Amino acid sequence: MTAYSNTRDFALLQDQNDSLSTFRQEFYHPIINGREAIYFTGNSLGLQPRVTQDYVLAELEDWATYGVEGHFHGRNPWYSYQDILTNQLATLLGALPIEVVSMNSLTTNLHLLLVSFYRPTKERHKIICEYDAFPSDLYAVQSQASYHGYNPDEAVVYLKAREGEYLLRTEDIIAAIEREGKSLATVMLGAVNYYTGQFLDLEKISAAAHKVGATVGFNLAHATGNVMMKLHEWNVDYACFCSYKYLNAGPGGVSGIFVHERFADDKSIPRFAGWWGNDPETRFSIPRTFVPARGARSWQLSNAAVISMSALKASLDIFEDAGMDELRAKSEKLTGFLEFIIQDINREFKASTGVEPVKIITPSNPAERGCQLSLIMHSNGKKIHEKLTEKGVITDWREPDVIRAAPAPLYNSFMDVYEFGQFLKESIL
């Protein structure tokens, strides 16, 4: 366990000894008031890798050179472009290559997966979801219940933290699953909650759902590229993820899905079919009947979004160079330093005012969080957030009362964290 010190010298020494420190220079950093901003918002939109323009330009050049023939004669033929992302994505998800494909946008993919894995009946039609899930997830599960003819107020079961708490206890999630039992069709949760930053125990939740005969899936928007996952080993049925947060693929970047290997050859699963999900060996023979490709690829609908995927490829190559194990180790240390500094601020203010100005609602256990800390101010939270922005600190505000700060290990430094603490202290004053 690292012995932290809330000093500039400590931060400088950690950066000097950081084997990943050079990756910071591979990203563009916003400039505010003539200096690099402290960018702690990779949980909302990751920074742009400097090489992204080269990757995108290569596809634009092939388009200019080959026209439609770029599908087969480009440097990275577009016909199979999604396949060059598969192995790298599978590594980040703890999945087999056959279980992963890049496609569409996040909520589109969630709906496509629910078509297949939320198959309600009169007896088994309920969906378990977090009460404070991101609105898009709420709208998705509510509308799916309505589409199937059920009242979402009855069909969707919301998980709430206990009175006076912010986090969901694993035992409470499992108890809810067991309580719904035979009425439960699927569990669909955010793997890392966008508001609190809590990383749920996906393995235990999956086991509990399967025990009562339900399917289980996760939205990995805040998990992919942030925490270590073993989706295949944990027996997760389905999952979707985005690429514009920790994966740094740009605004509205292409999404992707995970579907467990046991469904790879199950043609009985209902799905909304499209040409790109058809067996690629017969795709150009234009079969009148859909013949699904093996694995997650059969959920594809349309041609690969090559320009968006090329931006994702640029970032995935950086992840591969850095190594997710190494990134996660740095992330735990970096976030631990941020937590230490905030606690130090609380100690100082409490000694003089009797009040701790900052409440961290994200779990303190590194195994139960990624790099995000969600902070509730004792007073004037939104004003403090505005003051931080004026000082060149980019965090984000989430209603009703949370400042989210996420030091991403690829491009944030220990000095960033130290200076954030100094600016936060000044803003509270």
Distance separating the two termini: 31 Å
**Shape field:** globular
Percentage of residues in strands:
5-15%
Low-confidence stretches: none
User: And the CATH topology of the largest domain?
Assistant: Aspartate Aminotransferase, domain 2
Classify the helix fraction into a percent range.
25-40%
Helix/strand class: alpha/beta
Q: Provide the number of structural domains.
A: 2
The main sheet orders its strands as 4-10-9-8-7-5-6
Order of helices and strands: HEEEHHHEHEHHEHEHEEEHHEEHEEEH
**Could you tell me the radius of gyration in angstroms?**
23 Å
Main pleated sheet: 7 strands, mixed
Number of strands: 15
Sum this structure up briefly.
The chain is of the alpha/beta class.
Keywords for this entry:
429 residues, Aspartate Aminotransferase, domain 1, Aspartate Aminotransferase, domain 2, 2 domains, seven-stranded mixed β-sheet, 15 strands, globular
Characterization of this structure:
By secondary structure, the chain is of the alpha/beta class. The protein folds into two domains: 134 residues, Aspartate Aminotransferase, domain 1, CATH 3.90.1150.10; 268 residues, Type I PLP-dependent aspartate aminotransferase-like (Major domain) (Aspartate Aminotransferase, domain 2). The chain contains 13 helices and 15 strands. The strands form four sheets. A seven-stranded mixed sheet has the order 4-10-9-8-7-5-6, with helices on both faces. A four-stranded antiparallel sheet has the order 11-12-15-14, covered by helices on one side. A hairpin with a 3-residue loop joins β14 and β15. α8 packs parallel to α9, α11 packs parallel to α13 and α12 packs across α13. The longest helix is centred in the last third of the chain and has 30 residues. The protein is globular and about 75 Å long. The two termini are 31 Å apart. The relative contact order is 0.17. The model has no long low-confidence stretch (mean pLDDT 96).
